[in-house]
Amino acid sequence: MLAAECADWEACCFYLLEDNRAATVAEQALDWCRSLSEPAPLLEARILEHLGSINVRNHAYDSAIAYYERALAAAGAVRDLRRLARINHGLGIAHDGRGELDRAVVFVRRALVLYRQEGDLVSLARVENELGLLLMRGGQLQGAEELFVRALRRLETSGTEIGRSHVLLSLGELYLTAGRVADAIPIIRDAIERTGRLQERLAESTGHHLLGEAMERLGVRAEADNEYRIALDLLRNDGLDSRLIEVHMSYASVLERRSDLVAALGQLKQAAAIASGRT
């Protein structure tokens, strides 16, 4: 087996990430990589990283961590900083998926240091946003806000529009968490406008969900209901069931707090129907 042929299979695996054949192709590529007459640690690291990503997508976090750790060892042998950053980032996501927030923060911080050495502003902003979300969930709101603001500045400096809406939504969510509703609303509206222009449907639905929560806190119930309906419609059209269930449950909680138990039950029934595979 030639290294070039093995690399072709590795590339095939990358393009099949969303396909259920991806893991099989990646495992085959890994076997062939190891059968090469000359060791190819960088290629092996790429394939192992793909396998980690595939398992993260499948929520198989234990397997993902095992693959990422093997990828880390292979990539470390050739000191590929970008690859090491990606692998540490993946490890952070996998540990977060396993409910290990502190471990997730450790690996995402390492990814941040590595991306900083590379000088990649867009990747830095993306990881700063992710680290900020982890800190926010851990109650470290000031640290999270600093990261979100820094990420927005990096994206502005880089001149890229992609990713900016996600950081704005993170900042808007943080302000809602801190009770700063008046600060949150213009930021969330800005994010919604950007997501609509870029057709980022999942992020757009998140924006409407957050805006619905903000309107509810202000007591503007008609606007809150409208924002929740828009968020649900966007998710329903894209077939994003797990997120759709989450928003139905969130809206049910809002309706329950209003003592509208019939409407709340309706939202819970819709969430249950989606979870059971019924339309």
SSE layout and pairing:
Layout: H1 3-15, H2 22-34, H3 41-57, H4 61-76, H5 81-97, H6 101-118, H7 121-137, H8 141-158, H9 164-177, H10 181-198, H11 201-217, H12 221-238, H13 241-257, H14 261-275
Helix pairs in contact: 1-2, 1-3, 2-3, 3-4, 3-5, 4-5, 5-6, 6-7, 7-8, 7-9, 8-9, 9-10, 9-11, 10-11, 11-12, 12-13, 13-14
CATH architecture of one domain: Alpha Horseshoe
Mean pLDDT: 87
CATH class of one domain: Mainly Alpha
Oligomer: single chain
- Most strands sheet: none
CATH topology of one domain: Serine Threonine Protein Phosphatase 5, Tetratricopeptide repeat
Termini gap: 49 Å
What is the helix fraction of residues, given as a range? Answer: over 70%
The CATH superfamily label of one domain reads: Tetratricopeptide repeat domain
Strand content: under 5%
Radius of gyration: 21 Å
Key phrases:
14 helices; globular; 279 residues; mainly alpha; disordered N terminus
Question: Care to describe what's here?
Answer:
The chain has helices spanning 3-15, 22-34, 41-57, 61-76, 81-97, 101-118, 121-137, 141-158, 164-177, 181-198, 201-217, 221-238, 241-257, 261-275. It is an all-alpha fold and 279 residues long. Among the domains are: 1-119, Tetratricopeptide repeat domain (Serine Threonine Protein Phosphatase 5, Tetratricopeptide repeat), CATH 1.25.40.10; 245-279. The longest helix is centred in the middle third of the chain and has 18 residues, at 101-118. It is globular.
